[in-house]
Recover the amino acids of this structure.
């Protein structure tokens, strides 16, 4: 998990890495969705993570259907995944970003104006 | 997770992923002090990235101390630093990941598609259907057909050498399916 650099320093902050528990024990002939619960402990200055980094050390790829993060205020941050994650030993991992619209301050007025336009 | 270079007077054997929870990337020469790249865990709980058998989660660290005294002490010190940092104000995020793992069935489907493509190429672009039937895949099948069933339209038009190549390809793919890691 990583927060992409919107901070003053411009550097991304990284959390601890969490491993999908019980991955090798997942055996079976049929395809099924597997749900993993992960817990990340970060400092309060971390902020809401803007992206996640997923590493796959397994020779086979897996399909990351979704990733959600429950925030301290009980809201949920969604990350756009729906992608195959291949072996990432020779890369830095796959980055999936949060599906939150970031509107620059200079365009906030335009967005407000757009939202006021009645639907025909 | 820490990823740093350490100095150690010990030239260890190259360690892979082990239950001790550390990985030595480089060991250039024996009997000399060399830089080693070591990966070790520094999570807030102090547990290893490979779960240690120790109840305190420090079993891998003790093992590392035996082999790499300097390395272990560095990792330990970093652990303390991380704990101090997290002692102030921490926040926890709970993530839920839904994953479709590519299991054996998908691998077989992939392999069957490869066999179909290869066979179709060998028989001059004709449509080829390959069926793999096994009691392991579908338990409702009572009769065990261990290899498979290949349906090729107008087989008489296929040259003999193409048939030989096709059988070799099929045999190769079948062994690959059997022996492929999951």
């Amino acid at each position: 998990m990583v927060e992409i650099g919107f901070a003053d320093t411009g550097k991304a902050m990284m959390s601890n890495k969490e491993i999908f528990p019980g991955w090798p024990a997942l055996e079976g002939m049929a395809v099924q969705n597997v749900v993993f619960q992960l817990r990340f402990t970060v400092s309060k200055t971390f902020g809401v993570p803007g992206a996640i980094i997923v590493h796959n050390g397994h020779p086979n790829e897996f399909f990351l259907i979704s990733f959600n993060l429950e925030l301290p205020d009980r809201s949920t941050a969604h990350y756009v995944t729906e992608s195959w994650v291949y072996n990432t030993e020779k890369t830095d991992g796959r980055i999936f970003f949060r599906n939150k619209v970031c509107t620059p301050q200079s365009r906030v007025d335009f967005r407000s104006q757009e939202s006021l336009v009645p639907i025909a | 997770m820490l990823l740093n270079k350490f100095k150690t007077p010990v030239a260890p054997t190259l360690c892979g992923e082990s239950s001790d929870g550390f990985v030595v990337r480089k060991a250039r020469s024996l009997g000399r002090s060399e830089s080693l790249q070591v990966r070790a865990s520094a999570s807030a709980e102090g547990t290893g990235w490979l779960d240690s058998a120790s109840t305190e989660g420090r079993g891998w660290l003790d093992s590392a101390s035996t082999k790499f005294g300097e390395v272990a002490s560095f990792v330990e010190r970093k652990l303390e630093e991380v704990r101090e940092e997290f002692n102030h104000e921490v926040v926890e995020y709970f993530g839920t990941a839904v994953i479709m793992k590519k299991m054996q069935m998908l691998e077989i489907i992939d392999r069957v598609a490869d066999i179909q493509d290869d066979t179709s190429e060998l028989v001059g672009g004709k449509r080829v259907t390959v069926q793999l039937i096994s009691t392991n895949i579908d338990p409702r099948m009572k009769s065990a057909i261990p290899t498979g069933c290949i349906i090729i339209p107008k087989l008489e038009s296929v040259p003999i050498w193409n048939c030989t190549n096709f059988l070799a390809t099929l045999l190769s793919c079948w062994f690959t399916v059997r022996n492929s890691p999951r």
